[in-house]
Amino acid sequence: MRRRRCEKSNWWLAVALLLASAAAAEPVDPSHHWPLPPGELEERLAAEDFEVIEVAGGVGGVTGVKKLQIRMAEDGRELAVKWKKAPSGNADGWNNTPRKEIAAYEIQKWFLDPGDYVVPTTAARCIPPERYGPIEQAQLRRPPRAPRLGRLRTHTIDGTRCALGVLVIWIDAVTVPSELHDADRFRDDPLYARHLADFNLLTYLINHEDGREGNFLVSELEQQRRVFSIDNGVTFGARVKNFLVPNWNEIRVPALREKSIERLRALGDEQYEALGVLIEMKADRAGVLRPVPPGENAGPKNAVRLRPGWIQLGLNESEIQAVRERVDRLLKQVDEGKLATF
Known about the structure:
Elements: H1 2-25, H2 38-47, E1 50-57, E2 66-72, E3 78-85, H3 98-107, E4 122-127, H4 129-137, E5 163-169, E6 174-175, H5 183-188, H6 190-205, E7 216-219, E8 227-229, E9 255-256, H7 258-265, H8 269-274, E10 279-283, E11 289-291, E12 304-307, E13 310-313, H9 317-335, E14 340-341
Parallel strand pairs: 9-14
Antiparallel strand pairs: 1-2, 2-3, 3-5, 4-5, 6-7, 7-8, 10-11, 10-13, 12-13
Helix pairs in contact: 1-6
C-alpha cells in the first residue's frame, strides 16, 4: 500500500512540474467576462444612482432572484445585474444571506487577482420604493410603470425606507457545464487546471455545500475554460445543505496553484477580523440605507447587528474561526506532501 502511494505521489509530482512550467508561460486570461473592472463595479453598484429599464423575473433559485437591466446615472452606461432581495427583519435567511455572498466575493481577493475572480462582483444595495416598484412587479421587456407604493413593503430594516439586497454583475459568455471536473483535461491543460484549482480552493475555503446545476458556470470560450461560482448562499456552515449532489466544500482536484497557496500563507489577523464587518450601512435623510466606512465590530458573536436606520453585517466569530481552521488545515496538508501544488 505504501509503495502504491509513493508511486502515485511521484506520478503526480511529475505532472505538477509540467503544469507549473506550462502555466508560467501562459498569459493571464484576457477574457474577464466583466463589463467593467471589478473594483469600479464595486463602487458603482454600491453607491451610484441608477434607473431600472428592464426586469426579468424568476431567473432561477427559490429566493426571488431577478435579472435587471439598469442605466447608471453618471455616464448612462447600461449594465445587466442580478438582484436578490434580502429577507425582511434581519436580512439573513437559510438560503438568502447577503453577508455570505459578499464574504465569498471578498475571500477570493486573498489569493486571486481581479482578472482571475471566481465570484462575480457583488454589492449590498438598498433601493427606495419608487425605484423598487418595477422590480417587484417584474415587468418584462416593457418600460417600468410608476409603482403603486401602497402595495409595496417600503423597508427591509426598521427605521429605513428601502428594500435591502445584493446586486451581482451579470457575467457574459458563460454556460452551465455538462461536466465541471474533467480529470484528463486537468492533467493536460495548464490553463484549465489553473482556473479549476482556484475555483475549488475558494469553494473549500467558504465551505460551499450546494453544488446543484446552475450554481456554477464555465466560460463559453473553450480554450480558456474559466469557472465561476455565482450562488454562494449555502456556505460557511449553513443550517441547510444540499445532500443530493456532489458538493465542492472539499478539495476535489489533485493539486492547487502554488501561487495561491503562498498568498494564503501571508494572511494575518487583520484579514480574518475584516470578515466580521463586511457591510455597514446607515439611513440618509430619506430613510435609504447608504454604505459607510466599516466601523468597530458591534457584536462579534452575531452575524447581523441592527439599530433603527443602521445595519452591520459580517461573519460571526465561529464562522470566522472555521475559515481560519480550513486555511490552517489546507496549509498543513500541503506542507506534509498530502496535497500537491503546481
